[in-house]
Amino acid sequence: MDSQTKTQMNIYNQLRRIIENHTHMDEQPFMLNESMSLSPREVRTIDFLGQNKNKNVTNVATHFNFTKSAASQLINRLVKRKLVSKKISKHSDKEFHLSLSPEGKKAHQLIQIMTNQRLEMFLEMTERFSAQQIATTSEVLEQIETMVNERLKRFK
């Protein structure tokens, strides 16, 4: 195996470890307060609803690639926990518009703080790289993302 192939294999293995560690980290509950934690799906759903107005269960299912049934169950859990409000649509008795409750808005603010902290850490870490290194990394990651998306299409 030549030097370039070894380096490519190392990059591949590093990416796998990063993905595995990120997945593990992303599976951890988010402590909203001393008595309530949120699952990663709940966090992402609250964030989605906080950033997008006038959404319904179908929008949630489509955005996260869930079944409508799974999205509905998730939303119902968040409604029960008083984080999301459901209101019947003016256009259809079968459709509900979703919004964050006052408690859901507080949760969304905490999620945004966590997201901003992660972004700040990333920006600090990447400050030491040159513009060319950043551009090359971006190109490589775009290609990897394209490859992953192509592989995902095979499962749909």
From TrEMBL:
Keywords: DNA-binding, Transcription, Transcription regulation
Alphabetical list of SUPFAM superfamilies matching this protein: Winged helix' DNA-binding domain
Domain HTH marR-type: 8-146
Entry protein name: HTH marR-type domain-containing protein
Species for this entry: Pseudodesulfovibrio nedwellii
